[in-house]
Amino acid sequence: MKGDVMEVKLEGESRAIARPRWLMPLGLIAFGALASAQTFGFIMSPPDRDMGNLEKIMYVHVPAAWTAFVCFFVVFVESVRYLWTSQERHDLIAAAAAETGAALTALTLMLGSIWGRPTWGVWWTWDARLTSTAVLLVVFVGYLVLRAFTDDPVRRAKWSAAIGILGALNVPIVYMSVQWWRTLHQLQSSPHTLLPAYAMSLRLNGIAALLLAFYFITTRYHVARLERANEELADADALVVTDVETLEASYV
Amino acid sequence: MTFRRELARARAVAWKDLRTERRSLANFSGVLFLALLMLLLFGFALGPDAAALRESAAGIIWLAVLFSGVLAFNRSYQVELDDGAFETLLLYPGARWPIFVGKLVANLAFVLAVEVVVVPLAGVLFHADLTRSLLGLCGVLLFGTVGFVTLGTFYAAVASRTRAREVLLPLLLLPMLVPVLIAAAKATGALTTGDVMGDAGSWIRLLVAFDLIFFTASLAVYDVVIAG
User: Fold this and answer.
1) Do B171 and A167 touch (CB under 8 A)?
2) Taking CB atoms and an 8 Å limit, are A146 and B186 in contact across chains?
3) With contacts defined as CB-CB under 8 Å, which chain A residues touch B172?
4) Neighbour count for residue B4 (Cβ, 10 Å)
5) A76-126 tens-digit pLDDT
6) Is B193 exposed, middle or buried (0-12, 13-18, 19+ CB in 10 A)?
7) Is the dihedral of CA A84, A90, A96, A97 positive or negative?
8) Which residues are CB-neighbours of B142 under 8 A, at least 6 positions away?
9) What is d(CA A209, CA A26) in angstroms, rounded to the nearest whole number?
């Protein structure tokens, strides 16, 4: 069965897999928004009284953290929807969101660390927000590793949906327990705790990060569909080859 | 009536698992020995300062239990998978949750049996006063272990059927155990040092809440995981 790749269809879907036309413009808009929001932040917001230009890290760090949480919420919702409907696309969207979320979480932690060193004097401190973000990262890295080590697509989808739900459920519990364990933390940044000039930059960068994450998730989802189609093709080829071998064996 | 029959099935699964373990004791002795070894190694790593050791005793006890207990869960499914017995177990008429509950109970008995040896020995090695409030300590050990074993039994159902089960189970399980570890270690620490802050009770209540949440959540999605 050697078909044109673009003609490949996933099980239960009537249309062939094609790259969505709006994907490229979306990417251009997302990167454009990021570049302009960053430029806006650098030009319009004055250096902080205490931190100086160090506060510019906030325009990537805080939006990345917000967007990462949105991604993990998507993982949770799409996992529930997969278990509800058994439609593969929910599983693939959840996986795409988990990958994007894990990357953004890692970025958040790294930038927080770089910011924390000159501000707090340490690279790392065991406070509630940092620690639960780190736990969040390892939970979802586990989710991605599980996917990598499970070959059967239905098993992979079911198992990772279950683990995605439990992992998402664990996030508030970890946060709560770490907070009771040790809370020596300052107030988190939100537009309400900031001067208008900072708040505007933060909001714009938040929107840009969200657009970018949406672009990453849809691109990853598209690639995941192609990968799945490729897997199915390979399976079909394997079946054909086995048949020929049995046929040859029967002639001997 | 049906519920009682399902409970009887859960008991049968637990009994079968425990009997298999009792007849060989291979897994039990391995896990127990590893836990004891870890107590020694923690002692060497932290140095001979008695005050420092006493301070870290609670954390060491729980880490030794967690890291050694992780090895027990995969085997709980592995013995079934090796001989294709798991499919048979699934084919029996009735609900799937008794399989989970049965395996959970068997694993609970297993880990508690390890703790019966490990915890007193840790008390001796690290100069922790375990008898100060013995009943409370038993409660912490029980509830902490229930949380640990609930998640362990659930995640092993997934991990034991993947290619990299030895690596995958700790990778999936240990991050999920952070809340249980915090509450259990805090409560144990409080109870062995006299509970100066009077917060052991709230940590134990928190542990019970975690147990209930994780048990309900695992039970809710176990069917999906086990059938896949």
Assistant:
1) no
2) no
3) 142, 145-146, 163
4) 8
5) 999 999 999 999 999 999 999 999 999 999 999 999 888 888 888 888 888
6) middle
7) negative
8) B112
9) 13
Q: Which residues pair with A52 in a beta bridge?
A: A48
Q: Which pLDDT does position A118 carry in this prediction? A: 84
Main-chain phi, psi angles of A249, to 5 degrees: -60, -35
* Contact across the interface for B217 and A146, Cβ inside 8 Å: no
User: d(Cα B173, Cα A139) in Å, to the nearest integer?
Assistant: 9
Interface of A with B (CB under 8 A): 83, 135, 138-139, 141-142, 145-146, 149-152, 154-155, 158-159, 161-163, 165-167, 169-170, 173-174, 176-178, 180-181
Over the stretch B200-217, which tens digit does the pLDDT of each residue have? 888 899 899 999 999 999
pLDDT digits (tens, 9 = 90+) for A24-71: 999 999 999 999 988 888 888 777 777 777 778 888 898 999 999 999
Q: SS3 for A183?
A: coil
Based on its alpha-carbon atoms, the radius of gyration of chain B, rounded to whole angstroms, reads 18
3-state SS class at B164: coil
Rounded CA-CA distance B214/B176 in Å is: 10
- Which residues, 6 or more positions from A64, have their beta carbon under 8 angstroms from its beta carbon? A104, A105, A107, A108, A111, A209
Q: Which residue is it, tokens 């394997």?
A: A238
Residue A189, pLDDT score: 57
- pTM of the entire predicted model: 0.85
> From the CA of A140, how many Å to the nearest CA of chain B?
9
Q: Which residues contact A125 (CB under 8 A, 6 or more apart)?
A: A116, A184
Cβ-proximal residues to B136 (8 Å cutoff; 6+ apart), any chain: B187, B191, B200, B204
Q: What residue has token string 């490949």?
A: A8
Mutate to test the interface with B, among A76, A165, A170, A171 (most CBs of B within 10 A): A170
3-state SS assignment for residue A48: strand
Residue B197: count of CB within 10 angstroms of its CB? 10
Ordered alpha helix ranges (H), A45-123: 58-85, 88-120
Q: Which residues contact A21 (CB under 8 A, 6 or more apart)?
A: none
Question: B206 vs A177: CB contact, 8 Å cut-off?
Answer: yes
Q: Which of A155, A148, A153 is nearest to A231 (CA)?
A: A153
**Is A61:A130 a contact under the CB 8 Å cutoff?**
no
Query: Is the Cβ–Cβ distance between A215 and A157 less than 8 Å?
Result: no
